[in-house]
Write a structure and sequence with these properties.
The complex is a heterodimer of chains A (257) and B (789). Chain A has 257 residues and is α/β, with parallel strands linked by helices. Chain A has a domain of 177 residues: P-loop containing nucleotide triphosphate hydrolases (Rossmann fold, 3-Layer(aba) Sandwich). Chain A has 6 helices and 12 strands. In chain A, helix 3 crosses helix 4 and helix 5 packs parallel to helix 6. Chain A is globular. Chain A starts with 9 loop residues before the first strand and ends in a 12-residue tail after the last strand. Chain B is α+β, with helices and mostly antiparallel strands. Chain B folds into 5 domains: 197 residues, no CATH class; 67 residues, 2-Layer Sandwich (Alpha-Beta Plaits); 109 residues, no CATH class; 188 residues, no CATH class; 151 residues, no CATH class. Chain B is built from 25 helices and 22 strands. In chain B, helix 15 runs antiparallel to helix 23. The longest helix of chain B is centred in the C-terminal third of the chain and has 44 residues. The chains are: A alpha/beta (257), B alpha+beta (789). The interface between A and B is large, with 44 and 39 residues.
C-alpha cells in the first residue's frame, strides 16, 4: 500500500483509493491548482483545492459564476490537466496523463452531461446514445436502449433532438453519458437551460442513477439543488469555502426554485 | 473609425485562412482573365501590325487572266494595291538529302512587292544580279538548316535546279507554315516556302505568266471587306479566275486566329470558374458568420441599428476580399500577359511583339473581383438584416429537423436500423446544412470542369490524331512523282523490298461551288477499292468510294448548305466548272477534302494524272531502308513519311501535357481553396458536438475518420455532376475550335474521368487536414459549454 503523505486517503496497490473513513474514494484532489494565462493576464481558476468524493456519493458543487466549480469538474473529468497538485480518480492519478491518456480515462470512467445537451441534431435520440457507446467501444445497442429506458425515453427513441423538449433532450444527454456505464457522472449545470418542472425531471433521473450506486457530481449556481445532495461543496474565488453534509437528502420533487 | 469598423477589421482577422482562400480564388480568376485576354489582344495587335507593315493581302485570287484581274482590282475604290506573282508547289531537296513538296513564291527581284512583303531576318533581299538567289522562309530554314550562302534544289518538272540561299525571311502569309486549309499542320521537313525572283518562279512552274493576284485594301476598303471580296472575286471569275482566298480564310492567318481564339475562350472560362468558386466561398463563410453573429446582430438591431447598416457591414467583407483579390489579380495578370505574349510570339516567329497595358482590362479585372465578392456577400448580408432582434437575443439557432431524406429512407428500410450510429452520422451530416453541402458540391463541380476541360482536350486531341493516322490514313509514306505514273513504274514501286502495297493517287485543286457559295480544296482521286484510305462517316460508320460523284468533308454540309444527293460544281484551275453529285460526307479530323475514284477524277480533269503513290510497308520493315530504296526509284522526287506527321502531332501533345499539368494544378488549387473554406466552416460549426464526443472519450483519430468520411462523401457526390458537366463543357469548348481546318470529337477516356474524380477527392482530403488538426487543438473545456442550435 502506497502512502501519499496524506493522512486522510490512500492509493491502494490494487488501484483503488481508500477514503478518510476507510470507504473507497471515487475522486481525490490534493493541492489541485489551475492557472490560465501568464504574467499580468494570469488567472487563478483553482487555488490548492483538496477534495474527496466517495463512491456512490451525490455531490453538488455550488458557487457563483467564476468561482472555479466548472474548472474543478473539468479537472475531475480529465478534460484539462491541473497546473499543480494531484487528481486521483478511477483508481489512478490522472494529473500527469497526456491527451491520449486522459481520453482513455474519460472513455472508461466518466460520463458528462452539459447545460446545453450538445446532442447531434442529425441523429435520433437512440442514435445519439448509441453513437458514444459505439465510438468508445463501451456498450452496445442493448446498453443504449436500456440507458434510454432508464431516463424514461424508450418511447421517444426514434425522435430527433428538434422533436424533443429541452428536458427530454437533457435526459437523452444523460442516457448518452450512462450508456457506457461510467463510474462517475459529471453534470455541468444540467438544469440551467430548463424550467422547474423539466429540471425536476432531470434531477429525478440523476438521483435514481445515484441510488443505483453511481457517483454523481453536479455543478450548479442554483442553491436549491443542493437539497438533493449528500454533500454540498461551496466555492468562491477558486477555493472551497464550505462543505456541508445532508443527512437526509430531499427528493427531486421536493426541490423548488 | 467607428466601432462597427473595428469589429469589421477584427472579423477579417478571425479565421483568416477562409478569407485568404477567397482572395486567392479572386486573384487567380482576375489574373488569368487579364493574362488570357491581354495575351489575345497583344497577339492580335502584333499580327495586325505585321500585316500592315508587310502589307498582307486582303484577297488572293488564283488563275485566269491575272493582268486583267489585277488591273480591274486596282481600279476599284477601296483597293490600295494589287500585284501579280507566280506560285507553284514543287518538289524540293534539302541539303541533307531530305525531299518534300514545297512552294515557290515569285517576288520582284529588285524591290519588295506592293503586297505580301517579307521581313529579311538574315542575309539580303533578292537581287536582279543574282537570278538564282532565293530567300528561305524561316520555318524551312530552321528545319533544314538553310543559311545565307547555302543552297537548295528545286524540281522544275524536268530536273533538279540548284538555287543559292541569299537570306532567310519571315512572311505574314507563312507566320504559321500551313500549306493549305487542308494541311494546316505540316510536319517539320514536309513543307517549306522559298521566295524566288518572279522570273525564276515562272521557269520552275513552267508557266509564261503569273498565276496569282494579291490585293491590298485601303483602311476604308477593309471596313467593307466582305463586299469588296465578293465584287473582286466575281470580277476575277469573269476573267477565268479560280480560287479566291480572303485574309480571314488565308491558311496561316486562319490557323493562328483559331489558336489565339483559345486565349479569348480561356479569358471567359477562367474568370467564370474562379470567380464562381470565390462567390461560393464568400457565401459559405459569410453565411456561417451571420449565423454565429445572430445574437450580436439582434443586439445591434434592438439598439436601433438600421437594416442597411447591418447589410453594409457584412457586404463590406465581400467587397474587401473581392477588391484585395482583384488588385493582386490585375497586377499578376499584367505580368503574365506580357510573358505569354513574348513566349508565344517567339514560338511562332512573330517579328515584333506588342505588349500593352489596357485600361479596359484593368477596370474589367477590378470590376469582376468586386462584383463577385459583393454579389456573393449580398444574400448573407440581407439575411443578417432580417434577423428578428428578439429571436436573435434568445439565441435560438434553428436546429436540423427530422433528418431529411436520408432519415425517411432509413425508416423505409428496417434493415438500415442495424447500421452503426456512426454510419448515420456520416450519411446524415451532409443534410444538416444542405445548402452548404450544395455549395461544397458546386466547388467540386467547378474544379472538375476546369480539370476535365483541359484533360478532355488532351484526350480528344490524342483521339483525333489516332483517328486521322491510325484509322483514316493507312499509308506509311506518300511518294511524289516527277513524271506521269505508268503501270511499270507502279509495279516497280510495289516490288521494292519492304513495300507491301502501292496505290496511285491524284490531286486536283478545285473550288467546290453550291449556289453563290464556294470552298477551295483539293479533290483526291484514289482507286475505287482503295486500301490506303478509309472513309468514316459522320454517323460513325464506314463506307466505300462511290463510282459516281464525290465524297466531301462534313464541314461543307453547313458551309455550302448541301446535303447528300445535291448537285455541286467543281471549278477547276483552267476555269472550267464541272458538275457532280454529293455522294456522301466523310468525317475527318484534319482538313476538308473531296474524294472520288481515279476514273471520276480523270473524267472531270483529263489533264490531271496520278501524281503521287501511297505505299504501305511490310510489318517490321526497316523504314529508313525502304525510304532510301523508294527515293532512289526513277521518277520519285519527294518522299513524305506519314509517321513524321504523327510524330509531330505527338510532340504537340507533349506541350499539351504541360498545359494539362498547369490546368490540373489550377483545378487542384481551386478545389483546395473552396473545400478548405467550406469544410473548415463545417468543422467550426460542429465544434461543440465534436468536443462533446471527445469529452466522452472518443479518440481524435476515430473522430477524424468520421469527419473525413463525411467530407469525402460530399465531395464524391459533387464529383458525379462535376464529371457530367465537365464532359459537356469539354464538348462545348472543343466545339468552339472545330472548323473546316480541324474537327474535334469529344473523346474522354474512362480513366480520365476516374483520375479526375480521384484527384479532386485527394485534394479534398488535403483541404480538410488543417481543420482536422484543429480537432487535436480544440479547447474542450470551452466548447462543451457553448450554446449551439
Amino acid at each position: 500500500m502506497a502512502r501519499h503523505g496524506n493522512e486522510r486517503a490512500v492509493l491502494r496497490e490494487d488501484g483503488t483509493v481508500e477514503g478518510t473513513a476507510g470507504a473507497p474514494a471515487a475522486v481525490l484532489l490534493r493541492g489541485a491548482r489551475k492557472t490560465y494565462g501568464t504574467g499580468h493576464a494570469e488567472v487563478h481558476a483553482l487555488r490548492d483545492v483538496d477534495l474527496e468524493v466517495r463512491r456512490g456519493e451525490f455531490v453538488v458543487l455550488l458557487g457563483p459564476s467564476g468561482s472555479g466549480k466548472t474548472t474543478l469538474l473539468n479537472l475531475i473529468g480529465g478534460i484539462e490537466p491541473p497546473t499543480a497538485g494531484e487528481v486521483i480518480a478511477g483508481g489512478r492519478d490522472i494529473s500527469g496523463l497526456g491527451e491520449d491518456g486522459r481520453t482513455a480515462y474519460r472513455r472508461d470512467t466518466v460520463g458528462f452531461v452539459f447545460q446545453f445537451f450538445n446532442l447531434v441534431p442529425s441523429l435520433t435520440a437512440l442514435e445519439n446514445v448509441r453513437l458514444v457507446a459505439e465510438l468508445t467501444g463501451r456498450g452496445d445497442r442493448e446498453h443504449a436502449e436500456k440507458a434510454l429506458a432508464a431516463v424514461g425515453l424508450a418511447e421517444r427513441a426514434g425522435h430527433f433532438p428538434a422533436q424533443l423538449s429541452g428536458g427530454e433532450q437533457q435526459r437523452v444527454a444523460i442516457a448518452r453519458a450512462i450508456a457506457k456505464d461510467p463510474a462517475l457522472l459529471l453534470c455541468d449545470e444540467p438544469t440551467g437551460a430548463l424550467d422547474l418542472e423539466t429540471g425536476r425531471g432531470v434531477l429525478r433521473v440523476l438521483q435514481d442513477l445515484n441510488r443505483e450506486g453511481r457517483t454523481v457530481l453536479v455543478v450548479t449556481h442554483n442553491a436549491a439543488i443542493a437539497a438533493i445532495a449528500h454533500r454540498t461543496v461551496r466555492m468562491r474565488s477558486g477555493r472551497i469555502v464550505e462543505v456541508t453534509t445532508t443527512e437526509a437528502p430531499a427528493t427531486a420533487d421536493e426541490v423548488a426554485w | 473609425m467607428s466601432t462597427l469598423n473595428v469589429k469589421f477589421r477584427r472579423d477579417l482577422r478571425r479565421r483568416p485562412g477562409q478569407l485568404v482562400s477567397v482572395v486567392v480564388l479572386v486573384m487567380l480568376g482576375v489574373a488569368l482573365f487579364g493574362a488570357s485576354y491581354d495575351a489575345y489582344k497583344n497577339l492580335d495587335a502584333g499580327y495586325q501590325a505585321m500585316f500592315s507593315k508587310y502589307r498582307f493581302a486582303d484577297l488572293t485570287l488564283s488563275g485566269g487572266d491575272t493582268a486583267a484581274i489585277a488591273a480591274q482590282a486596282k481600279a476599284r475604290p477601296g483597293v490600295e494595291s494589287a500585284a501579280v506573282r507566280t506560285v507553284a508547289d514543287v518538289p524540293m531537296r534539302m541539303p541533307d538529302g531530305g525531299t518534300l513538296v514545297g512552294r515557290v513564291v515569285g517576288l520582284p527581284a529588285g524591290a519588295q512587292p506592293d503586297v505580301d512583303r517579307v521581313k529579311v531576318l538574315k542575309g539580303r533581299y533578292l537581287d536582279p544580279a543574282a537570278p538564282t538567289g532565293v530567300l528561305a522562309d524561316k520555318h524551312v530554314a530552321d528545319d533544314a538548316d538553310l543559311k545565307p550562302g547555302g543552297s537548295v534544289s528545286v524540281w522544275d518538272g524536268r530536273a533538279w535546279r540548284s538555287l543559292g540561299v541569299r537570306g532567310t525571311v519571315s512572311s505574314p502569309e507563312y507566320l504559321w507554315p500551313a500549306a493549305s486549309r487542308q494541311d494546316v499542320l505540316p510536319a517539320p521537313g514536309s513543307f517549306g516556302v522559298l521566295f524566288v525572283p518572279e522570273q525564276l518562279a515562272r521557269q520552275i512552274a513552267g508557266t509564261t505568266g503569273p498565276n496569282q493576284v494579291t490585293v491590298y485594301y485601303t483602311g476604308a476598303g477593309r471596313g467593307h471587306a466582305a463586299r469588296l471580296d465578293a465584287a473582286l472575286t466575281a470580277a476575277a471569275r469573269r476573267h477565268g479566275g479560280g480560287a479566291a482566298v480572303t485574309r480571314a480564310e488565308q491558311p496561316s492567318n486562319a490557323t493562328l486566329a483559331e489558336d489565339i481564339k483559345g486565349f479569348s475562350e480561356l479569358a471567359v472560362m477562367f474568370p467564370l470558374l474562379f470567380l464562381a468558386a470565390a462567390g461560393v466561398t464568400v457565401y459559405v463563410v459569410l453565411t456561417r458568420r451571420v449565423a454565429r453573429d445572430r445574437v450580436v446582430i439582434g443586439t445591434l438591431r434592438a439598439s436601433g441599428f438600421r437594416r442597411r447598416t447591418v447589410v453594409a457591414h457584412y457586404l463590406m467583407t465581400g467587397v474587401a476580399v473581392g477588391l484585395a483579390g482583384s488588385v493582386l489579380g490585375v497586377a499578376a495578370g499584367l505580368l503574365l500577359a506580357g510573358t505569354v505574349t513574348r513566349v508565344y510570339g517567339d514560338a511562332i516567329g512573330l517579328p515584333e511583339t506588342i505588349v500593352s497595358v489596357r485600361a479596359s482590362t484593368v477596370v474589367a479585372g477590378l470590376a469582376f473581383g468586386l462584383v463577385a465578392g459583393a454579389l456573393a456577400a449580398l444574400a448573407p448580408a440581407v439575411s443578417a438584416a432580417r434577423v428578428p432582434p428578439a429571436e436573435a437575443m434568445r439565441g435560438n439557432v434553428p436546429s436540423a429537423g427530422g433528418g431529411g431524406l436520408v432519415a425517411r429512407l432509413q425508416r423505409s428500410l428496417p434493415a438500415a436500423e442495424r447500421l452503426p450510429a456512426g454510419v448515420w452520422l456520416v450519411l446524415r451530416g451532409p443534410t444538416r446544412q444542405f445548402r452548404r453541402t450544395l455549395y461544397t458540391m458546386a466547388g467540386v463541380v467547378l474544379a472538375l470542369v476546369l480539370i476535365l476541360v483541359s484533360w478532355g482536350m488532351l484526350d480528344s486531341s490524342q483521339a483525333t490524331v489516332s483517328r486521322q493516322f491510325d484509322q483514316i490514313q493507312r499509308q506509311d509514306a506518300e511518294l511524289t512523282l516527277g513524271r506521269p505514273l505508268d503501270g511499270a513504274a507502279l509495279g516497280a514501286l510495289s516490288a521494292t523490298k519492304g513495300v507491301r502495297a502501292a496505290e496511285p493517287s491524284a490531286h486536283v485543286p478545285v473550288t467546290i461551288t453550291a449556289g453563290d457559295k464556294g470552298y477551295s480544296t483539293t479533290v483526291v482521286g484514289l482507286p475505287a477499292g482503295t486500301r490506303m484510305h478509309r472513309f468514316l462517316t459522320p454517323g460513325g460508320g464506314e463506307r466505300g468510294l462511290p463510282r459516281q460523284g464525290a465524297l466531301i468533308g462534313a464541314a461543307l454540309r453547313g458551309r455550302l448548305g448541301v446535303t447528300e444527293g445535291d448537285r455541286i460544281g467543281l471549278r477547276l484551275g483552267d476555269g472550267r466548272t464541272v458538275t457532280t453529285t454529293v455522294a456522301g460526307f466523310v468525317d475527318e479530323p484534319l482538313g476538308t477534302y473531296a474524294y472520288a475514284t481515279l476514273g471520276q477524277v480523270a473524267a472531270w480533269a483529263p489533264a490531271a494524272k496520278p501524281d503521287t503513290v501511297l505505299v504501305t510497308f511490310d510489318a517490321g520493315a526497316d523504314r529508313a531502308a525502304v525510304e532510301r530504296a523508294l527515293s532512289a526509284r526513277p521518277g520519285v522526287v519527294a518522299y513524305a513519311d506519314s509517321q513524321a506527321l504523327k510524330k509531330t502531332m505527338d510532340e504537340y501533345m507533349n506541350l499539351f501535357y504541360v498545359f494539362v499539368a498547369v490546368m490540373l494544378a489550377f483545378g487542384g488549387l481551386l478545389a483546395f481553396t473552396v473545400l478548405f473554406a467550406t469544410l473548415s466552416v463545417n468543422l467550426a460549426e460542429r465544434g461543440t458536438e465534436l468536443a462533446t464526443l471527445r469529452a466522452a472519450g472518443v479518440g481524435r483519430r476515430r473522430l477524424a475518420r468520421l469527419v473525413t468520411a463525411e467530407n469525402l462523401l460530399v465531395v464524391a457526390a459533387g464529383a458525379v455532376p462535376g464529371l457530367v458537366i465537365g464532359r459537356l463543357a469539354t464538348g462545348a469548348f472543343l466545339g468552339a475550335f472545330s472548323s473546316d481546318l480541324m474537327a474535334f470529337h469529344t473523346e474522354i477516356r474512362p480513366a480520365t474521368f476516374g483520375w479526375s474524380a480521384l484527384a479532386v477527392i485527394a485534394v479534398a482530403y488535403l483541404a480538410q487536414r488543417p481543420g482536422l488538426r484543429g480537432l487535436a487543438r480544440m479547447n474542450l473545456a470551452t466548447l462543451v459549454r457553448e450554446r449551439t442550435g
